[in-house]
């Protein structure tokens, strides 16, 4: 199987059928499968997906018992995908299915592990654009993401990277975070972006906050280290200020007022507390990362041309 197309389905009874039909007509030159994952839709998406799976032999369908969220649904699809390349695409037709070939060409020509799409002009609501900007800015610092890389949900992933991603067994998968744990061989290509043809976006403040916390806490020790550095700065400033006040007092150069002493004491104590909390947090963070299922290393290839006897 050359290509797998994973589609997380949520309340898209009117679009999922036409989307699969378009896929069948535009990817004729490649062997491919479509993996539909119904993420607890409240409409008739499950029935429509069943009809589509019965109609096409290259369509696989998995229905989740409740709504687990987009990333969990995508993770389910990745676990069932068999293609050498896996494309993740939304069910709302904002990404044209024909653009899958653009991603595939970019990956094969450039030999990339992952190819992200980006848009000359996004057709999302302003709120989703603002949320995307916030998450992209956060991941730039917490995951060492290149600044010019837009983390689109429409992307292609090589089979070897997918095998590493699905080793994660935690309840809070963040696909992009897992990708950056596995590879830095990432490309980008411009594709069209269309307005929604049906329904409305499921992007809400609650989901934005949940995604922000997942990225901020679940895939990096960066937050802990920020507060540790704040503690170091406050404590260091307190030591310098305290030394200056003491020297000034014993040499009769200054006579510090009481409120200055209070501010110095509070600042120094706060810095010391943040420093100790940061150290404790570093230990806890290391334990969390150790048990999160994230890989310690990822092998690209092996070479073993000589047997053990020959080496002896």
From TrEMBL:
Signal peptide residue numbers: none
Residue ranges annotated for the Glycosyltransferase 2-like domain, each copy included: 4-165
InterPro entries in UniProt: Glyco_trans_2-like, Glycosyltransferase_2, Nucleotide-diphossugar_trans
CDD domains: DPM1_like_bac
Molecular function GO terms recorded: undecaprenyl-phosphate 4-deoxy-4-formamido-L-arabinose transferase activity
Protein keywords: Cell membrane, Glycosyltransferase, Lipopolysaccharide biosynthesis, Membrane, Transferase, Transmembrane, Transmembrane helix
GO terms, biological process: lipopolysaccharide biosynthetic process
Residue runs in coiled coils: none
Transmembrane regions: 203-222, 229-251, 257-280
One Pfam family matching this protein: Glycos_transf_2
A single GO cellular-component term on record: plasma membrane
UniProt xrefs under PANTHER family: UNDECAPRENYL-PHOSPHATE 4-DEOXY-4-FORMAMIDO-L-ARABINOSE TRANSFERASE, UNDECAPRENYL-PHOSPHATE 4-DEOXY-4-FORMAMIDO-L-ARABINOSE TRANSFERASE-RELATED
Protein name, entry field: Glycosyltransferase family 2 protein
Species this protein is from: Spirosoma aureum
């Amino acid at each position: 199987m050359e290509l797998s197309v994973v589609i997380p389905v949520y309340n898209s009874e009117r679009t999922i059928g036409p989307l699969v039909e378009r896929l069948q007509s535009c990817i004729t030159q490649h062997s491919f499968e479509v993996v539909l994952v119904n993420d607890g839709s409240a409409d008739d998406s499950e029935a429509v997906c069943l009809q589509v799976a019965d109609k096409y032999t290259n369509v696989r369908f998995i229905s989740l018992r409740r709504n687990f969220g987009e990333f969990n649904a995508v993770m389910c699809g990745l676990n069932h995908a068999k293609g050498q390349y896996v494309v993740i695409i939304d069910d709302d037709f904002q990404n044209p299915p024909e653009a899958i070939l653009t991603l595939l060409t970019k990956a094969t020509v450039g030999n990339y592990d992952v190819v992200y799409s980006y848009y000359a002009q996004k057709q999302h609501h302003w709120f989703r654009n603002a949320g995307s900007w916030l998450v992209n800015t956060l991941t730039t610092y917490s995951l060492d993401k290149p600044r010019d890389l837009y983390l689109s949900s429409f992307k292609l992933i090589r089979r070897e990277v997918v095998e590493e991603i699905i080793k994660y067994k935690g309840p809070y998968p963040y696909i992009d975070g897992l990708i950056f744990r596995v590879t830095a061989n990432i490309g980008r290509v411009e594709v069209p972006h269309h307005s929604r043809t049906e329904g409305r976006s499921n992007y809400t403040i609650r989901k934005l906050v949940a995604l922000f916390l997942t990225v901020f806490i679940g895939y990096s020790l960066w937050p802990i280290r920020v507060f540790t550095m704040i503690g170091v700065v406050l404590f260091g400033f307190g030591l310098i200020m305290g030394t200056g006040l003491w020297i000034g007092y014993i040499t009769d150069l200054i006579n510090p007022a009481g409120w200055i002493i209070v501010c110095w004491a509070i600042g120094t104590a706060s810095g010391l507390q943040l420093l100790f909390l940061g150290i404790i947090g570093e230990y806890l963070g290391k334990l969390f990362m150790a048990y999160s299922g994230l890989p310690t290393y990822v092998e690209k290839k092996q070479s073993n041309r000589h047997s053990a006897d020959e080496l002896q």
